[in-house]
Amino acid sequence: MSRPSLYLAPSVNTTTVTTTTTTTTTYAPIPLPPLPAPSSPKDPKEYPLLHAHLPRSLRRFSLEFPGGARATFEDGTQGNIFDEVEEVPAGQGWRMLKRGYDANREETIGLIEAVERYGRKRSHSISSEMMLDNIEAPLLASNLTGSPPPRKKPRGSTLNTNNAAPPSPLPSPNGSPPTTAVWPSAPPSTVSSPQPSTVIVSNTAPFQPDISIATLMTLPNILSHFNNLPQPLQSHILLTLMRHSPLPVLRNIHSVLTPTLARDFLTLLPPELTSIILSYLPYSALARASRVSKSWRAIIDSDPILWQELLKTTRIWFGGDTERAFADAVNARRTYKGLPAPGCLPLPHPFKILFKSRHLTRTRWMNNNNPRRISFAAHGGAVVTCLLFSHNRIISASDDHSIHVYCPFTGNLLQSLDGHEGGVWALAATKNTLVSGSTDRTVRIWNLTNGKCTHIFGGHTSTVRCLAIVKPEWLDIDIEGGGIKRERWPKRPMVVTGSRDHSLRVWKLPRQGDPEYMSAGANDSEGDVGDEDADENPYHVRLLTGHEQAVRALAARGRTIVSGSYDCTVRVWDIITGACTWTLTGHTQKVYSVVLDPVRNQCCSGSMDGTVRIWNLKTGQAIHVLHGHTSLVGLLGLSPTHLVSAAADSTLRVWDPSSGQLRHILAAHTGAITCFQHDEFKVLSGSDGTLKMWDIRDGTVVRDLLTGITGVWQVVFDGRWCVAASNRLDMTYLDVWDFGGDDDDQDWVGELNSMPDEEDVDSDGTMEDDDEEAPAVEPGLNDMDVLIDEDREDTSNVRTPWNQSSSAGPSSRLVDRALTDAGLFNVDNRSNRTGGLSNNGDEPPTRSNPSRSSNNGRVR
């Protein structure tokens, strides 16, 4: 191959005197020194992509050139591409061909030829663009093709113009060198102008070509040519250049490409695919991902499918009914409050709130061995009969006639609600309203914001033993002739009370700002509350009669009330019509506890006969009779998938509420179970001197929360909080545990009691600013059932415990009262092991305190 040469255009010098003489001087080509060879990268550390393999799609692909010619590009620098086996979809008589594939085996070309063939259509224009300054295009073109330069014969005399330098063919702003430094060249043509008279021969070239200058000069044309290449060829060229680029260059390219090519795939994908992708992440990863950006947080927090699947995969999804009810309640409250506000991020889906509550409940309670704990005295030495935790308030009631409200953070007494003239045996609360029932036969309504008693309802003639607040909710109502319609019942919040006078009463729950009402005989006024005509009370709705003995327990939901009585029956009532829908018979002794299961349309009852019965509310038949307890079943609790019963035989039993199958027997206490509460993860139970936590899923003891005490009156938990009322050293104490871990747990709220139920909607469509129902905590076996007949002498003060011990400490009193209710003692201090009722059907007498009796001496 011949070395490249530089052809110089003839210089033309025109001198005008009187006549114009043109002298044309031609120069022989000046050979240029070769361009320095580019450095070849060898160090893979400096050139990380030096040995990187190109993608298969960029090593072989089809090309179509201008004019319709086709060829196959193949990169031969990385071995034989056909060594790689590529699976081609095929079948009998057919196979799939790639786009542009030619069965006749197209011509295979390399990189240089591909680039050249794409550039041929632009050769003329490219040559023109590459002309240097002061060089005429036709002349340069002829020189490049090897034809002699055009010449003109001089007219007139021929002058020697050595004193004038020829115009420079190089891209320099300065002129050619002076005549004394004529460049060496080949001998001039015979027809050209005469040679200069003085020639100075130099052994060095006038300049050394610089590769960077040449590259910069051709860069615009390279870019123009590059834009016309097909994308596969462009990609191949760029990757080839990057393979020969050192690490600093690659870093600079990366700093530009990374933010440019970044894409938020979560926002670009369809929501269905986004949910599937996120469902593979654990909760901890989702929590971190939600902090990446506002868009990610909105996508993650508001995806119901994601959180539903997470609830299921972590085994904290309990059938769907409670979950949907929770979601409906949260959404209703947000709608009422106008949330979210315009321009704000979407609020988390209720399923996320539910997941966080259940996740924290499961992990914090089981793993936090040292929760924050405070302990303080309350109610002197009196028995705590009821205990609630509602809206960060601890509400306790006692047989000393008082109701106290404490702060769970400090243990300070916030309010003391005084007014009852007898022991308080029933409590229920909503947001800022508290309802209490007492042995003084009254029902009182309290405003928790100021501690004032706003309403006193009279009408019961004996102890108000149990009560419940019924909130409006949507129900499926059967239509005559088939079909179901949804209705909201009751139309406004109601209060249902059960009494030892064998009756139940239904009251309207007063709203904030409703007129106050005080019954006759209340607050030392004239008259007797038992003699009041309840029909004159504007808040009284109806009286439910039918039981033949004291109403010991009740449960209410929607339109349904279930009551258990000492007459051994369970009755089902319609709260709207007051009709008794069913009288459920089967227990052989007193009924002490009932729970209502609206999801399964059934109810459960526990009796002194040691059995638990599950009743079908549609047919009125007992579908399961649960045997196992050997003594009074005084407490029942129901969660979505667990039914728990507690008895005086010192055991708790966990049942399947659908099938009635026994799952676990919780046997570690040594005395009668006085109180308990459970959810889907744990059971807290109190007995003679201990408060235990159980894992409800396997029936094992997790830990003892309280030991070395005399007795446990009540226990209640909600979210991160647990409160227990116990007796030690003849004093009553409240112990408060906080199972929250850190600041992230500040919004950890309890699922059952602290999160809002569905908002209350009146018949006129207005909504109340009430919060959820905080159901009354069922008093344990330590409570006293006091009914003193007018013709019966009070002999309770001479009764001794069943072991004939003379000690009268709180622990013996606790067991004494429980077993007295169980019918295991009579007033003559003789053991009544039969446990049956007396011949006249009267209830066994219990301890009484005349100083705390009502005015007429009939009830306490």
TrEMBL record:
Residues 24-44, 141-198, 753-860 are annotated as: Disordered. WD repeats lie at residues 417-456, 544-583, 584-625, 626-665, 666-704. Residues 797-810, 828-841 have a biased composition (Polar residues). Keywords: Repeat, WD repeat. Residues 756-775 have a biased composition (Acidic residues). InterPro entries: F-box-like_dom_sf, F-box_dom, WD40/YVTN_repeat-like_dom_sf, WD40_PAC1, WD40_repeat_CS, WD40_repeat_dom_sf, WD40_rpt. Residues 30-41, 166-176 have a biased composition (Pro residues). One of its GO terms (biological process) is ubiquitin recycling. Residues 177-198, 846-860 have a biased composition (Low complexity). GO terms for cellular component: cytoplasm; nucleus. SMART domains: FBOX (SM00256), WD40 (SM00320). Residues 263-310 form the F-box domain. Gene3D superfamilies: 1.20.1280.50, YVTN repeat-like/Quinoprotein amine dehydrogenase. It comes from the Eukaryota. The keyword Repeat applies. This is F-box domain-containing protein. It comes from Clathrus columnatus. The lineage of its organism: Eukaryota, Fungi, Dikarya, Basidiomycota, Agaricomycotina.
